[in-house]
């Protein structure tokens, strides 16, 4: 749809009445530029956390279906409040839940995937000249049950809507100015990146930059959605994310540090065909995302298998690894929360052997032990001691003259 | 459906975590008696009021559609919390929003009427052996928008579901023990009524007894739903409401006082055919319920028209009366908030002339001026000075030896 802009505002941006009014003004300003506007919002401030806490006062194991029923109210409050604030500014507006705006998802509660979006209602309301306010993070499954999309859900809602509606662009408003060469809270010299490719931000985001969820970026890349990350508190232009960034120009985009991970090792696994598949398919079946994997042959016919997962999936992952170890007669399962992943990201990483050598040299100079290594087309990552993470990030940022 | 019980718990009964757990136990007890159970709940405690206040910090005139979007989250939180509490007790349960359980309503936001209930989903889940928890007060209209049912909405949801599902009975759990001969907070001698007919409770309820909303009673009467009003805080048997109460037995059921009304007068209305219709159809068009109407011919060709409305509809009603007065060239519109309606209710009222005479005698003895009078098959009501209302109620309760 030509002239259509999808905007997404996170929980901090709609954290109180004043901020909701501020967002209403921004939305109206965009509308008054002659644009059609679809706005995706998250729950206000800590609402979701508060609802989770309330549920856990009643049960330590509430079902995911009922948690989705509970948590989806957070966004529903936000859309009504923002719609009311926009009406107060004299504009036609309508709020829609995930169900009403046709976001059809898989049946998997608390971690649903968007299957497709039926845009009939949105298109109808846009053609009536209305601003549309949509509840992020939620959808509806084939049984008409409310689902939530899990981590990065609202970003994903926004990008999926931008793709389905063929929007001119998708603007993600957040509480930072855009994407930086490193986390500015840790590296004060970090610089804003004005433009970056999908692949590069994907590596930076999934490595802990926390600006934009990788699911959303991946979707944007697949459907070629023009993305912008901007602050909802100022008028700075932020970071543009699109396909046709001049990839030859910049060697290194940024340094990232992910402290929110844990390492699990299954020791002395008998070396049989299909045994790795057995473990990792069990993990995938429980929707646990495994990041780095290393397999060491320690002695004849026995392997050590080591992998990393997000911290909040550690317990589930360890349980599954234990079951696996028992089943295949491995020696034992160990885990370590004291690790971090340090990465250097940029299209020049693999093209230029100097990058890797500089990276390892820096770690050597800092006397940091490398526990695991992985590389891709555009990044090198190492698992290191968490205590040395921040220091290493700062040193690395300098080493690459960023 | 045989063996099916519909229970409704109001906002006070689910006002905090402990109370939700208490309700969960009651529901499970009923289920364990071998019954199928459908539970309708209101929003927790002051949730609805808090949401209304929040909306009004942003706008003094939020649209009713967006208010419905906002307020319906209150019940959605309750159903999820209650479902989680019941799961914790080891029972199969599922929560359903008004939309999911097929409550189809008119398009009128904030005051929607239930058109019909598509019970497919509820019947399916009941046949799976599940307890069903349903959000009261809400439904969905033909445009798939969330509507709320207005005053008495949750009671109405419960009775409508009981009718649609052909339930054995519909139990309304509240914070009082049942229906009394007068408001026990005002008349300490008031007695619990163990059984009462639809018509009688209708008169008592609409006259301000506040136990059970008249909409719900009317619906129960139309579909012959066996109703019970009981306390959610004890095991007392409460009040049963059904058709085949022995109507000859009791002369007077109770005395009620409604202080939540106001009186409006349009003075010196030219006496033309259809002129009353004009005023009252305008009021009906704005969904304003007019209660008593009196028309006095003061002098030739000019009438004074006086009527009463609920206090919270006073402003709207006065506006409409003003427009009407201007249009038909009436002299002016006056209103009075200082009035109350005192009524005596019972099947014996009209059958026995002594009742009316006793009623008027009591008012005379108390030197209370009667401003308006209306009578029906089973009640006599007078509009009197609000300041004398409570005193008159107590006196009347004694006068009729209740």
UniProtKB/TrEMBL annotation, chains A, B:
Keywords of this entry: Amino-acid biosynthesis, ATP-binding, Diaminopimelate biosynthesis, Kinase, Lysine biosynthesis, Nucleotide-binding, Repeat, Transferase
Stored CDD domains: AAK_AKii-LysC-BS, ACT_AK-LysC-DapG-like_2, ACT_AKii-LysC-BS-like_1
Residues where substrate binds: 48, 75
Gene Ontology annotations for the cellular component aspect, listed alphabetically: cytosol
The ACT domain, residue ranges: 264-338
NCBIfam families to which the protein is assigned, alphabetical: asp_kin_monofn, asp_kinases, PRK06635.1-2, PRK06635.1-4
Subunit structure: Tetramer consisting of 2 isoforms Alpha (catalytic and regulation) and of a homodimer of 2 isoforms Beta (regulation).
Family that this chain belongs to: Belongs to the aspartokinase family.
Protein name, as recorded: Aspartokinase
UniProt organism field: Alkalibaculum sporogenes
Lineage per the UniProt record: Bacteria, Bacillati, Bacillota, Clostridia, Eubacteriales
């Amino acid at each position: 749809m030509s002239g259509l802009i999808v905007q997404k505002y996170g929980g901090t941006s709609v954290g109180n009445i004043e901020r909701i009014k501020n967002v209403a003004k921004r939305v109206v300003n965009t509308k008054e530029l002659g644009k059609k506007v679809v706005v995706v919002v998250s729950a206000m401030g800590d609402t979701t956390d508060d609802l989770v806490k309330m549920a856990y006062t009643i049960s330590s194991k509430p079902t995911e279906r009922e948690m989705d029923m509970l948590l989806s109210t957070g966004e529903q409050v936000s859309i009504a409040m923002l719609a009311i604030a926009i009406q107060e500014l004299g504009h036609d507006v309508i709020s829609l839940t995930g169900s009403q705006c046709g976001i059809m998802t898989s049946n998997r509660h608390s971690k649903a995937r968007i299957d497709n979006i039926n845009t009939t209602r949105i298109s109808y309301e846009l053609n009536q000249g209305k601003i549309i306010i949509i509840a992020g993070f939620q959808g509806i499954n084939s049984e008409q049950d409310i689902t939530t999309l899990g981590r990065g859900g609202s970003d994903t809602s926004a990008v999926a809507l931008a793709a389905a509606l063929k929007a001119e662009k998708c603007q993600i408003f957040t509480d930072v100015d855009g994407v930086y060469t490193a986390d500015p809270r840790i590296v004060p010299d970090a610089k804003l990146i004005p433009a970056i490719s999908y692949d590069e931000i994907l590596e930076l985001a999934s490595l802990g930059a926390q600006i934009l969820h990788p699911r959303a970026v991946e979707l944007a890349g697949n459907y070629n959605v023009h993305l912008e990350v901007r602050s909802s508190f100022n008028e700075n232009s932020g970071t543009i994310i699109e396909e046709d960034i001049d990839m030859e120009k910049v060697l290194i985009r940024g340094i990232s540090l992910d402290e929110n991970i844990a390492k699990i090792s299954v020791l002395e696994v008998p070396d049989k065909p299909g045994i790795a598949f057995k473990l990792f398919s069990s993990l995938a079946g429980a929707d646990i995302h495994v990041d780095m994997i290393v397999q060491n042959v320690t002695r004849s016919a026995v392997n050590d298998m080591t992998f990393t997962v997000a911290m909040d999936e550690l317990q589930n992952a360890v349980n599954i690894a234990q079951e696996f170890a028992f089943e295949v007669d491995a020696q034992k399962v160990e885990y370590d929360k004291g690790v971090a992943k340090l990465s250097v990201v940029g299209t020049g990483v693999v093209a230029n052997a100097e990058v890797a050598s500089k990276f390892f040299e820096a770690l050597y100079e800092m006397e940091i032990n490398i526990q695991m290594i992985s590389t891709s087309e555009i990044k090198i990552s190492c698992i290191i001691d968490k205590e040395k993470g921040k220091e290493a990030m700062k040193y690395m940022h300098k080493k690459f003259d960023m």
